[in-house]
Amino acid sequence: MAESGLSSEFSGSMTSSTLPPPRTRIFKIIVIGDSGVGKTCLTYRFCAGKFPEKTEATIGVDFRERLVEIDGEKIKIQLWDTAGQERFRKSMVQHYYRNVHAVVFVYDVTNATSFRSLPAWIEECKQYALGTEVPRILVGNKCDLQDSIQVGTDVAQQFADAHSMPLFETSAKNPNSQVDGGYAGGNSDHVEAIFMTVAHKLKSQKPLVLSQPPGASGATINLSRGINDGGDGSRGWGCSC
Ligand SMILES: Nc1nc2c(ncn2[C@@H]2O[C@H](COP(=O)(O)OP(=O)(O)OP(=O)(O)O)[C@@H](O)[C@H]2O)c(=O)[nH]1
């Protein structure tokens, strides 16, 4: 018995039970934006399926992940929930910008200041060598607070267009609500749909190519897309909702 097992192993006729399990791909997605816009709540909603009862300001970075299946492949989506407050992020910042596959910029639709901060967040990404080759999306959160909206869909859409990113408006608190202007639809969980759209986009890319940004230190590696992948940034792969 033992002998026949050995011979089949060395004969090259490996059965599926002897093959090593396929490696699970990991997509690292960082979520950035001002303090209080709801980054923790959005990432918690996607990974835990509910709105957290209580949140505190993130210190440094929090890390959540969820295993999903896309077209028969198991993929681990890692969401890096970064601190919005400057004093809580300084020491960590270079760590979470490493090996990023996609960036989610978040603003609070009830807080115009958080929207005006977006250029600074985009600039920070550039400083860490994350350019438009890395898929980026813009998320306006807290759409459930309809009476307090300060950032209209039109102005947000203009900004998104100018920066070649798709715009999603949603609510981590009530992602099933339906309102005008593209927020949520039917009974689906809109937050879920947003992160899954990013994951589908990443999966559909040409094999990720390791590349070293010019002048970067040896520790920094960027993942960029294959050459036939559109070339127009992330515009055009937007909301499927
Ligand atoms: N009404 C409403 N409140 C929300 C929503 N998302 C988050 N909040 C509230 O907004 C506050 C801040 O949410 P967080 O998720 O902690 O914000 P953050 O962006 O992670 O903040 P930092 O960790 O400081 O960067 C909390 O009181 C949440 O309950 C939402 O969709 N609707």
Automatic annotation (TrEMBL):
Q: Which CDD domains match?
A: Rab33B_Rab33A
Q: What's the protein here called?
A: small monomeric GTPase
Superkingdom of origin organism: Eukaryota
Instruction: Cite the NCBIfam families for this sequence.
Output: small_GTP
Q: Which organism is it from?
A: Channa argus
Report how it sits in the membrane. Answer: Lipid-anchor
Record-linked InterPro entries: P-loop_NTPase, Rab33A/B, Small_GTP-bd, Small_GTPase
| Molecular-function GO terms, alphabetical | G protein activity; GTP binding
Q: Does the keyword Transferase apply?
A: no
- Swiss-Prot/TrEMBL cofactor(s): Mg(2+)
The record's section on PANTHER family has:
PTHR47978
Q: Please write the reaction equations for the catalytic activity of this protein.
A: GTP + H2O = GDP + phosphate + H(+)
**Where does this polypeptide localize?**
Endomembrane system
Recorded GO cellular component terms are: Golgi apparatus
Among the Pfam families in the record, one is Ras
Q: What class of enzyme is it?
A: hydrolase
Q: Which UniProt keywords apply?
A: GTP-binding, Hydrolase, Lipoprotein, Membrane, Methylation, Nucleotide-binding, Prenylation
Any single GO BP term:
Rab protein signal transduction
| Family statement | Belongs to the small GTPase superfamily. Rab family.
Q: What's the EC number here?
A: 3.6.5.2
SUPFAM superfamilies annotated for this entry? P-loop containing nucleoside triphosphate hydrolases (SSF52540)
